[in-house]
Design a protein that fits this description.
The protein is mainly α. Helices cover 77% and strands 3% of the residues. The protein has eight helices and two strands.
């Protein structure tokens, strides 16, 4: 069984041996992530391309995979459709937040700097509406975060084991999935802290942090997950 640190070291070693493939993968994965925001169509595109992209990357870095693309498509489509619905809920709640103050346009007062949208420029009714909309948005956000966490805990192993050829049918193994998710979540937190630290560097910190997240964190996390899945 691959340990927590060992999974990262193996991922780092694969990254160093195949830097070009890792960078190409990370850019493609990042762009796919943007495409997958598109309702329904994004889920279908992602379900078709992500297993192929992961299979290509793993074949280049950790060895041959025996991916069942039909099964992978079904598993990833289910996951991405659920994720898509969560994103839609979030956008909908945000839209409701923006429209929660009726007649906000007429309530804005013109100032020398443009429009004054401070709470003092709104009526009591509109302020209550905005407050309720904000509370609703925050509650929705926490619900979606919880749903996403549960989804990851249940499906992480299935999503990657089908790509790595370890499953011949779609089944949920919560125990294995939880162990795989723990590794990816743990290293995601650690690398996220490093990325944040890079971001506070004066002048170019944001750009360094962004490049670090896209070109290093994405492939490393995917390799950590693969190493963990293979070991259990």
């Amino acid at each position: 069984m691959v340990g927590f640190v060992e999974a990262f070291l193996k991922a780092l070693d694969s990254y160093k041996k195949h830097p070009l493939e890792s960078i190409v993968f990370s850019i493609a994965y990042f762009l796919l992530g943007i495409v997958m925001i598109i309702p329904l169509l994004g889920a279908v595109i992602g379900a078709y391309l992500i297993p192929r992209l992961l299979s290509w990357f793993y074949n280049k870095t950790i060895g041959n995979t025996n991916t069942d693309y039909k099964l992978s498509f079904r598993v990833w489509l289910f996951y991405l459709l659920v994720t898509n619905s969560m994103i839609f809920q979030l956008f909908l709640s945000f839209y409701l937040l923006l429209t929660s103050v009726s007649g906000i346009g007429s309530s804005m007062t013109v100032t020398t700097m443009g429009f004054d949208m401070s709470p003092y420029s709104l009526s009591v009714t509109e302020s209550y509406g905005f407050a309720i909309g904000t509370i609703f948005f925050i509650i929705t956000l926490f619900i979606i975060m919880f749903q996403s966490l549960i989804l990851q805990i249940f499906l992480t192993y299935s999503l990657y084991s089908v790509v790595l050829g370890k499953l011949s049918e779609f089944k949920v193994d919560v125990g294995k999935s939880l162990r795989v998710f723990g590794y990816s979540f743990g290293w995601g937190i650690i690398l996220g802290i490093i990325s944040y630290a890079l971001g506070i560097i004066p002048v170019y910190g944001y750009h360094i942090s962004l490049l670090f997240s896209i070109l290093f964190v994405i492939p490393i996390i995917q390799l950590v997950i693969a190493n963990r899945v293979i070991s259990i």
